[in-house]
Amino acid sequence: MDAAFTAEQDEIRRTLRELLVKRCGPGEVRSAVRTAHGYDGALWRQLAQDLGLPGLALAQEYGGVGCGPVELAVACEETGRALLPSPLLATAALAAPLIAALGTEAQRTALLPRIAAGELTATLAAPGGSLSTALGLTGDTTGGAWAGGGRAGGVQARPGPEGWRLYGEAARVLDGHSAGLLLVAAHAGGFPRSRTLLFLVRADTATGLARTRQTSLDETRPLARVELRDTAAELLGADDTVDAAGPAGALAAVGRTAAAVLAAEAVGAAASTLDRTVEYVKAREQFGRAIGSFQAVKHRLADLYVRVQAARSAAYYAAWDPTAGGLALAQALETLRITTAEAVQLHGGIGFTWEHEAHLYFKRAAADELLFGPVHRLRDHAAEQAGLFTQDAQGHGQGQAQGHGYGPRMGVAV
């Protein structure tokens, strides 16, 4: 494995950072999140048309750039630095890969080029209130329990003479109020033989669709409640190609890659927070000297620097090997939480004010862990999948059965 970035990846980083420095300062972020869509439409079109951002990881045959998860992670690290409000994550990291993996050729041809061009935004509407479980990051996607479950829970799908109809609602849908295309997880087959499938709902033509933007802790991550009342939908994929497990495997695969992208985005936010804090302590004076010259402050900043660099390494390793996505995301979210909390403290009284940008990053850290975590559940599920805490024949943990306090792999204390 060559860990060095390619010239193309460095160019993506440089070009995107230069643009976002000019167009996405704290003032522009506050203005963008208060618009109807929750982001700057002109900036989004520029990112799509000039840089090809939404199609960065899509195949060239569908109008994409033809890059991969690493390039998307590089881009999202930069959007994380600026806290860019945009539909990039929901569209490029969640919806587009699912369409590419599960859609028919006709669906891919009709939808992916429009997504790559920035003409169509999309998102995943997963009932049950836990996006991280739906993506297989904090729970198992098989069985469909993550999608609400039960005869009256989640979203129900019924076939009819004119196609599928959806009934129910999903809350906390990322960019659900503005996305032009919804990928809705719904139960089909009735209660005795219920299985979870994904359906396409086109917001511009769907009837019985109600979308309400919800108040969110982090305004740069707008969430919405999606209600479906006898809403026409199209099955993602063909009836004869959908297996009994439904989209569980595809959701888990997309979740692993999305976790790496999210980790890179969190690293970008943490790095930006650290940079801003370093600049502040170099300028802020106390007792006739810059507070950054105090040894205690230096130690705290050094600890944060090590955390950020370690999280960055984990994020890009996960972009190269998505099986490590859950652990990389846990490390990045923890790093962002600690870094932003320290930033507020080191900024002193000004760091506690709503007018200062420190609170934007602090709220991103708290909201991301609520939406994609929490950290301990990410790590617990990763350990469970790796078989770290399996039981022996006597019902004891494997590490304990071996006579020491460590698990069977990686030397993890139990």
Automatic annotation (TrEMBL):
Q: One Pfam family, short name please? A: Acyl-CoA_dh_1
Q: What highest taxon heads this organism's lineage?
A: Bacteria
Keyword Iron-sulfur attached: no
List required co-factors. Answer: FAD
Q: What are the Acyl-CoA dehydrogenase/oxidase N-terminal domain coordinates in residue numbering? A: 6-119
Q: Which Gene3D superfamilies match?
A: Acyl-CoA dehydrogenase/oxidase, N-terminal domain, Butyryl-CoA Dehydrogenase, subunit A, domain 2, Butyryl-CoA Dehydrogenase, subunit A, domain 3
Q: Which key words are in the record? A: FAD, Flavoprotein, Oxidoreductase
Q: Give the molecular function GO annotations.
A: oxidoreductase activity
Q: What class of enzyme is it?
A: oxidoreductase
Please report which protein family the annotation says this sequence is part of: Belongs to the acyl-CoA dehydrogenase family.
Protein's name in the database:
Acyl-CoA dehydrogenase family protein
